[in-house]
Structures are given as structure tokens and as C-alpha cells.
């Protein structure tokens, strides 16, 4: 089943972002480091040229570090700087401040040349649900704050948050849903937990994950589940799922095995994985 994307949602989110864009110096686009393509925001792509912006690859603790480095290079070649962080464990947070200062160096220089003291840089965090916006905001603000954009129906008053890095953050606007034209993007978002589990059948998502791992992370797959070459070669991926179901001791409960595989992916039991590979995401 495909996730519906209504043009009305898109326009509303776009207008909300656009309205706020003029209030800030820079936009922090948060993506999931496991999905630097699939978790990018479709709204932002259309309007971002108007503003300085950096990409924050959050959840880097879960992603394949080599592919994260490739993505950083890829974004740089496209003209956007990016940093990787792990907000959950408060790692790399100081890179946010230094990257913002470097992006806005001319403006900061002007402030300093003109003797302006105590200037505040204004930024806005945006990202699809579950990429870690609230976690990042909480780390930067130093206490728990509610991200209004995550809650449908909450008044969308502008809310400035003072951070501990000399930057004022404009609370994120309304919910920025991902755009899912490509069914593979939907599978990846489901696998990462960005889309509610009930939207896709667990066996479809698990088969997608196993198939992707057979192509890109065969060693990790074999090692994590103790699979021999004979378990893998000359078997289709659905057959592999059936074999794993037996191996887990779940008899013929393929849904249970599928849910376990999805959970194992999310909890790092299969190692650090990235499901978007630069330049390859339409081929795998
Ligand atoms: P959102 O506002 O963008 O919707 O995302 P939020 O901060 O609520 O984070 C969604 C989930 O991702 C949370 O997990 C959060 O702990 C986790 N998370 C955020 N940043 C990172 C990170 O850098 N690394 C890892 N590994 N996880 C991260 P949860 O399961 O909803 O809650 P909990 O497990 O923290 O209780």
C-alpha cells in the first residue's frame, strides 16, 4: 500500500516553511544518516535556494560510516555542506555551531566589524518526522522542549528557543511528511521507523531489508544470523525469510520473523547499515 501524499499537505507545509524562512539566517535540514536521500524533505528542495542551509546527518551511530562519508562528499559536490551527529548520545553537537558560524562567516564578520555585541544567529530546524528534531532541539536548548511541528492541530505560533550555542532556533513548522513516489523509498522509511509500522506489511519490509543486505551487506547478514553460503545462494529472498523463520524457532510465523528482522535492523543487531547509497538508490 502506498502512502498518500496530498498536494494540500505539501502546499501547507511549503507555505509554513516559506513564511518562516525570512525570519532566519540559516536552515538546518535534519535527515536520517541511514537514509540521506529518502528522508530528505520534499518541501525544502523547492525553496531552499533562497536561504543558506546545512544538512545534519543525524543517527550517524546507526549508519555505515563509509557511506556517510560518501554522502557528505556527494552533498558537498552539490554545493551543500553537511555534518554527521548522534544526537541521542550527544555526539558531534559542537559541529553544528562551528558549521553554522562558518556558513555565516560574512554576516558574523559584519557584526563584529560594526561592534555589534551579543548578536544572535537565527536558525530553523526542519525534517520529516522521526529524524530526531526533538532530540536535537532538546540537546541544543539543554532541557526538554516540545516540538510543535510534530503534533497535528497544535497552534503554530512562532516559538523561539534559546540554545546554549548562541543561536536562537525557530521551532519547526507543521508536520513535514516525506514524499513517497518510489515504493522503495517507502520501504526504507518503514524500515527506519519513520513511517508507522501498520502502513506496510512486515514481510514486505523484511524481504526488502534482506534483499538489500544480500546486495550490499552480505558479510554482516551472514555473520549476524549465522548463515552459511548454502543458506543464501540459490535461494530467493522470500525463501531466505522462510528459512530464518525456522531458524528463529518461529515455525511458520513469517510475520513474527519479519518483525524481528526489522527490529534487529533498527537496534543495530545487524550492524551499522545505510539504505541509501549515493548514485545507486534507484538500482538496488
Ligand atoms: P522527531 O522529533 O524528528 O520526530 O524525532 P525524535 O527526536 O522524537 O526522535 C525519534 C527517535 O529517534 C527517538 O527514539 C530518538 O531517541 C531517536 N534518535 C534521535 N536521534 C538519534 C540519534 O542520533 N541516534 C539514535 N540511535 N537514535 C536517535 P524513540 O525510539 O522514539 O525513543 P527512545 O528510544 O529514545 O525512547
UniProtKB/TrEMBL annotation:
Phylogenetic classification of the source organism: Bacteria, Bacillati, Bacillota, Bacilli, Lactobacillales
Residues bound to GTP: 58-61, 130-135, 174
Pfam families linked to this entry: MMR_HSR1
NCBIfam families: GTPase_YlqF
Protein name in the entry: Ribosome biogenesis GTPase A
UniProt main location, coarse: cytoplasm
One annotated GO molecular function: GTPase activity
Gene: ylqF
PROSITE patterns documented for this protein: G_CP (PS51721)
A cellular-component GO term for this protein: cytoplasm
Role: Required for a late step of 50S ribosomal subunit assembly. Has GTPase activity.
Keywords, sorted A to Z: Cytoplasm, GTP-binding, Nucleotide-binding
GO BP annotations listed: translation
Localization annotation: Cytoplasm
Similarity-based family: Belongs to the TRAFAC class YlqF/YawG GTPase family. MTG1 subfamily.
Domain CP-type G: 14-178
Lineage top rank: taxon: Bacteria
UniProt entry tagged with the keyword Nucleotide-binding: yes
Coiled-coil stretches: none
Source organism of the structure: Companilactobacillus farciminis
CDD domains xref list: YlqF
Gene3D superfamilies recorded: 1.10.1580.10, P-loop containing nucleotide triphosphate hydrolases (3.40.50.300)
